[in-house]
Design brief:
By secondary structure, the protein is of the alpha+beta class. It has 9 helices and 10 strands. A hairpin with a 2-residue loop joins strand 7 and strand 8.
């Protein structure tokens, strides 16, 4: 099963991005991923997530590991030439409002998206910054991250609500963090955090996925869905490769989309 676009969606100017070949992932990133699984002591656990906000780099920026408690940890880092932090904030306010915007991000694996009805007014509130519009809101997505299409809730949290140290937040330019739950059962699946920093000529997009955890209302990690025998390594690898693909493709399409649509106050306008 693969994503498709409707006849109505084909009339939208950026629909051509659905049919373009996916951006090529830097072969060096694939090579780094082949060194996994890594020793779990080397990768950043959900309990040490504030380390992501420190200056410099972590020991493992591209890799995955099965953790001692059976949970999974995945890290990816993709450089995005020509992309700015402002573009990232705009993208996360903009793309969740229409299916096609989600599909062009990763045409092989992204099927649909909408904002949870109760959160729609918050997402559209022009009195808030683009950065703040996601906080406390939920996207409902159908996405394939390696195991086939799955309907999920992505519930975004502010950096403070995610338990990040306010003294460290200033070291990064954008933080996108969310809990992921099964849309039908409500069971927690994974929590993720994207840390974006400026680099010469663009940004670096550093992602961490902690499989089997969510962050609770007190900003603390809580185990939610750890299989008795631990996560299969193939599932962790699939998540890692999907992340490299979707963010490499976003890096290629985002500057042009932002140039054309990023100045529209009305986020629904195509």
């Amino acid at each position: 099963m693969h994503p498709k676009i409707t006849e109505e969606e084909k009339k939208i100017s950026y629909s051509s991005l659905f049919d373009k070949p996916l951006a090529k992932v830097d072969p060096a990133l694939y090579a780094q991923m082949e060194l996994s699984p890594v020793d779990p002591a080397r990768i950043t656990s959900v309990f040490d997530r504030n380390d992501i906000l420190k200056t410099g780099y972590l020991e493992v920026e591209n890799g995955y590991a099965l953790m001692p408690d059976g949970s999974g940890c995945v890290a990816t880092k993709v450089e995005m030439p020509g992309v700015t932090p402002e573009m990232i904030d705009w993208w996360f306010a903009w793309h969740g409002l229409k299916d096609l915007r989600y599909k062009i991000w990763c045409p092989t694996d992204h099927f649909s998206i909408h904002v949870l009805e109760k959160d729609y007014a918050h997402r559209m509130d022009e009195s808030l910054s683009l950065k703040e519009r996601n906080w406390g809101t939920t996207d409902v997505v159908v996405e394939n991250v390696g195991g086939g299409p799955q309907k999920m809730h992505l519930s975004f949290r502010s950096p403070a609500d995610y338990g990040y140290d306010p003294d460290l937040i200033k070291n990064v330019d954008v933080l996108i963090s969310a809990n992921v739950t099964d849309a039908d059962t409500g069971h927690g699946l994974v929590t993720f955090s994207h840390c974006v920093r400026r680099i010469p000529g663009g940004v670096e997009y550093r992602s961490h996925y902690w499989q089997g955890y969510n962050i609770d209302e007190n900003g603390k990690p809580v185990a939610v869905a750890i299989p008795e025998d631990g996560f299969p390594l193939e599932a962790l690898k699939g998540n890692a490769l999907h992340s490299l693909v979707e963010y490499s493709n976003l890096a290629e399409i985002l500057p042009g989309l932002y140039e054309r649509y990023g100045q529209n106050r009305d986020l629904l306008q195509d």
